[in-house]
Structure formats: structure tokens, C-alpha cells
């Protein structure tokens, strides 16, 4: 019987790729929309030499998840556009705080002096960690804000970690689990009585490849990963934009004659002793096993009739909406600073979350290209009245003028509201995911779940999540 993959975003396409490699055919992918790629969407203006990214902008090469994506990129023969650690886009991180643009320190020396928006040298935050008593945390989880505030003080929580959480998941650090980003540091603190003490202790213990998780590579680490390490890439993009990755996956699957059924929304998913049944608008499709890469709330709707308790657990993973506004200007002399972009700490209570300087990261042929992000966890506070695209663009332009001094009209722009695009790993998320997977295992459902809701929200995370779910299947499952 066929194996079915629900969703043809990067996670579902990757699941199909790894399924095909491990089990071969038959295999079918069902995708509700008429295109593949999910939130990864590149709008190319080849004639003018620039492009807009509607979702993620760059990929990081680090760690096992980074190496895994590079292996895929290499296998699909995609052309990478590396950004080295020495590049301004990798070195310069800006904050707009207290009415000013502030450059975050990017060297050890930067920890010594007082750097705005901080009122004390940052090394004092490290001393705070050495002195602060350890609180044993209830249920072994807390918000990342409270962890950083406890260990390093309120300024770091407000002006370093809160904006970083905005950049990664457009979320509120006061709600996001410390395990989302700082699991290791949190565990070191709980075990060794401080973050620095734990980090120093761990440095004496050399890690093996297996401990690093690199064991997934059968022979050796991918060549492109070795190159990224040797050339010290901080991040990379793809020639033609990040949408080339899902497109290349789709072409590969098409070459292998794998059926990607677009505009085929699953309406319900049920299980019986023979396997799974996917109800589409006009048909019932049986499957031996289903890998769902759908957002948790969508999968909840599919299973709720037969498994209401599973649906309730899936619905407990909240999502936020993000407004992405791409702006293009004809001149490349407009930006007076270089860097990846800027973030606005939530304590500033402004309607924008940050601005990415796309034309600093990648060559845009003499154009200035910016991306303004708005909404996220604070979407309802600012945009509950459903402003028009023009109003949203006006807000973005107002802040571009105020913060970056660019007051001319963009020549070209695009406004996208990405509804429920980023899951929020709120306190207790890890337990929630364990419980969802335990439910599936206890009821012996022929179902695996991967995607941004479960094992990390980045491109690397969702590709690795898909690979691991496929690797976990018993040999006879497909
Ligand atoms: C749609 C908006 C998105 C926001 N975050 C993500 C998307 C798709 C996903 C994301 N962005 C970053 C990561 C971290 C790991 C990685 O894969 O690169 C993830 C999962 C990195 C990132 N993106 C922005 C920033 C400032 C950062 C933090 C790290 C860094 O400084 O490099 C830009 C940005 N993304 C979002 C906002 C609101 C924003 C602001 C400029 C939300």
C-alpha cells in the first residue's frame, strides 16, 4: 500500500525525499494549495536583478541540522550563495531601542565597555551568572525570559534575548520555553549551578560525532558541510532564492515519478486495522502509513472525529501571524549602514518587529531591498482591525523613514500576511510533543508527525525532523 505525505512545504517534500530513498515507491503527497514550498516563497524580478523572500531569508550551515540541509542541497545540485562570518551581514546586528539604532557587540572586546542600549558593560551580566543562586525549576521548564533574567539580569532579557526570539519565531520570550533555544545552557545551569560553570566544564569533555548527532551520515560528513566549515560560512542563500530548494525537491520527485497532488486538501484522516484513510473532497485514499508535515492545528482538524484527545493536544500548540513587507528602491546608496538588519525589542512597544537588509546580505544589482516584519505575538494588539495592504505598507514605510532615513517611495513592494505561520514553543512544549508522539505510539496509529510544530521552526530543523521520522519507521512500514 502507498505511503502518504500530507503537505508539500519543505518538510513534507523532504519527508517524501527520504521515504523514497529508504523505501522506494509507492508514495503520494497531498498538498492543499496549488503550489509547493509552503511559507518559502521567492518572487524573482530577474530583469531588475533583485528578488523578494516572503518567508525565511537565509539558512545556517552549523551543526548536524545544518550539515543535513547542506547534504540535501548538494544532492539536488543547487548553487549556494555563502555569507562568510567576516561579512558585514554576519557581523553586524542592530537593535532599534530607546529611539536609536544600536550596534550589538560582535567581539569579546565589546563586552568590556558600556554599549547602548545597555547601561552596564556586558561582562557584568556574566558575573551575575557566576554569583546568582540556582533555582531548581518546577517541571524542568520555564520561559526563556525568566531564565535569562535569573542568570544574566533584566537588561539582557529585554534587549538581547527578547529581540532574538522575535527574529526566530516572532514570539514573546516571556512565553517561549527555555528549551526552545537554550536547552543545553538551562540543563548546565540546573546541573552545575551556573551557565558559565557548566559551559566551562563541558569544554573539557570532547564530544564524539555520535554525541553531536552526526551519526546520521552513513560514511562521512557531507562535502558541502566540510566546505562551509573550512570557508567559515555564517549562513547562505541559494541562487534564485530559497524557493529553489522546494522546487528542486519537487523536480527530483517528479523525475522519480512520485505523485505530488496539488490542490488536494485532506478533509479528514482516520485509521483502522488496515492502515489509514485520507478523505479528500471527491475521494477516499487508503495508505499504509501517513507522514503529516501539516501545521499542528490543521492536523488536529483532520483527526478530531476519531481522536479528539490527540486533536486537543495538537491544538495546544499556538501559532502567530506575521506580516512580511518587501520593499525595493532603485538606488543602492540609500542604506547608510551595513548589516543583516535590525530588530525592535518588544519593550519598545512598536508595531514593527524588525527589518532585514536583503541587499546587504546578497547582491541585488544596484537595488536596495528591505523586508519589514510586523505582527507575530503582538499581531492582535496592532492589526486586529484588519488594515488594508496600503495601510500596512504605509506603517512599514513610516518606520523605514524614521529608523533608516529612507523616505522615498519604493519602486516596487509586496505585502503578505502569513496566517498562523510560526508555531510557538511555549513553556511545556517539549512535554506536549512527547505526549502527542506517545499517544500515536500507544494507539499504534500508522502516523508520524514532522514539521515546524514539533522539532524546531527553522528550515534545517524541519528537514532533519522529516529525515528522523522516516529513519524511525520500522523496515516493513511502507
Ligand atoms: C516569516 C518570518 C520569520 C521569522 N523567523 C523565521 C521566519 C521564517 C524563521 C527563522 N529566522 C531565523 C531563524 C533562526 C535559525 C535559522 O534557521 O536561521 C529562524 C528559525 C533567523 C533570523 N531571522 C531574522 C533574524 C533577526 C534572525 C535571528 C538571528 C540572526 O540575527 O541571524 C529576521 C526576522 N525573522 C522574523 C522577524 C520578525 C525578523 C526580523 C527582522 C520572524
Shape: globular
Count of alpha/pi helices = 19
Ligand list: the ligand C=Cc1c2[nH]c(c1C)Cc1[nH]c(c(CCC(=O)O)c1C)Cc1[nH]c(c(C)c1CCC(=O)O)Cc1[nH]c(c(C)c1C=C)C2
What is the SS-derived class?
Answer: alpha/beta
Span between termini: 7 Å
Question: Strand-residue fraction?
Answer: 15-25%
CATH architecture annotation name of the domain at 3-34 and 244-317 and 426-472: 3-Layer(bba) Sandwich
Q: What is the top-level CATH class of the domain at 3-34 and 244-317 and 426-472?
A: Alpha Beta
Uncertain segments: none
Helix content: 25-40%
Q: What is the radius of gyration computed over CA atoms, rounded to a whole number of angstroms?
A: 23 Å
Report the average pLDDT across residues. 94
**Largest sheet entry:** 7 strands, mixed
- Find the count of extended strands (DSSP E, 2+ residues): 19
CATH topology tier name of the domain at 3-34 and 244-317 and 426-472: FAD/NAD(P)-binding domain
According to CATH, the homologous superfamily of the domain at 3-34 and 244-317 and 426-472 is: FAD/NAD(P)-binding domain
Adjacency order of strands in the biggest sheet? 7-6-15-16-17-14-18
Amino acid at each position: 500500500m502507498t505511503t502518504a505525505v500530507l503537505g508539500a512545504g519543505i518538510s513534507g517534500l523532504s519527508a517524501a525525499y527520504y521515504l523514497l530513498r529508504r523505501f522506494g515507491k509507492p508514495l503520494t503527497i497531498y498538498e492543499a494549495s496549488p503550489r509547493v514550498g509552503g511559507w518559502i516563497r521567492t518572487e524573482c524580478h530577474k530583469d531588475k536583478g533583485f528578488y523578494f523572500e516572503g518567508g525565511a531569508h537565509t539558512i545556517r550551515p552549523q551543526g548536524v541540522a545544518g550539515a543535513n540541509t547542506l547534504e540535501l542541497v548538494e544532492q539536488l545540485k543547487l548553487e549556494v550563495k555563502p555569507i562568510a562570518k567576516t561579512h558585514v551581514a554576519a557581523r553586524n546586528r542592530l537593535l532599534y531601542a530607546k529611539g536609536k539604532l544600536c550596534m550589538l557587540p560582535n567581539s569579546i572586546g565589546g563586552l568590556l565597555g558600556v554599549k547602548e542600549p545597555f547601561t552596564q558593560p556586558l561582562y557584568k551580566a556574566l558575573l551575575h551568572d557566576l554569583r546568582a543562586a540556582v533555582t531548581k525549576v518546577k517541571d524542568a521548564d520555564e520561559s526563556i525570559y525568566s531564565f535569562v533574567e535569573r542568570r544574566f539580569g533584566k537588561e539582557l532579557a529585554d534587549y538581547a534575548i527578547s529581540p532574538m526570539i522575535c527574529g526566530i519565531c516572532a514570539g514573546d520570550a516571556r512565553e517561549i520555553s527555555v528549551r526552545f533555544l537554550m536547552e543545553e545552557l538551562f540543563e548546565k545551569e540546573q546541573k552545575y549551578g551556573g551557565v558559565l560553570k557548566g559551559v566551562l566544564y563541558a569544554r573539557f569533555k570532547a564530544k564524539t560525532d555520535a554525541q553531536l548527532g552526526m551519526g546520521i551520515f552513513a560514511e562521512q560528513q557531507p562535502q558541502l558541510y566540510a566546505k562551509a566549515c573550512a570557508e567559515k560560512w555564517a549562513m547562505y542563500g541559494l541562487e534564485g532564492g530559497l524557493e529553489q530548494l522546494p522546487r528542486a525537491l519537487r523536480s527530483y520527485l517528479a523525475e522519480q515519478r512520485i505523485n505530488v497532488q496539488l490542490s488536494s486538501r485532506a478533509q479528514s484522516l482516520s485509521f483502522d486495522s488496515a492502515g489509514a484513510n485520507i478523505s479528500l473532497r471527491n475521494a477516499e485514499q487508503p495508505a499504509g502509513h501517513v507522514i503529516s508535515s501539516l501545521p499542528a492545528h490543521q492536523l488536529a482538524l483532520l483527526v478530531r472525529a476519531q481522536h479528539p484527545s490527540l486533536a486537543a493536544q495538537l491544538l495546544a500548540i499556538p501559532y502567530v501571524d506575521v506580516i512580511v513587507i518587501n520593499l525595493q528602491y532603485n538606488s543602492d546608496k540609500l542604506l547608510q549602514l551595513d548589516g543583516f538588519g535590525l530588530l525592535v525589542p518588544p519593550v519598545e512597544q512598536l508595531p514593527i518587529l524588525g527589518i532585514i537588509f536583503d541587499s546587504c546580505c546578497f547582491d541585488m544589482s544596484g537595488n536596495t531591498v528591505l523586508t519589514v516584519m510586523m505582527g507575530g505575538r503582538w499581531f492582535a494588539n496592532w492589526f486586529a482591525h484588519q488594515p488594508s495592504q496600503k495601510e500596512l505598507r504605509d506603517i512599514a514605510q513610516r518606520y523605514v523613514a524614521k529608523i533608516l532615513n529612507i523616505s522615498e517611495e519604493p519602486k516596487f513592494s509586496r505585502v503578505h500576511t502569513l496566517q498562523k505561520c510560526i508555531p510557538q514553543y511555549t513553556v511545556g512544549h517539549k512535554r506536549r510533543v512527547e505526549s502527542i508522539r506517545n499517544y500515536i505510539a500507544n494507539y499504534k496509529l500508522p502516523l508520524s508527525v514532522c514539521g515546524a510544530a514539533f522539532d524546531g521552526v527553522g528550515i534545517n530543523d524541519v528537514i532533519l525532523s522529516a529525515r528522523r521520522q522516516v529513519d524511525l519507521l520500522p523496515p516493513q512500514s511502507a
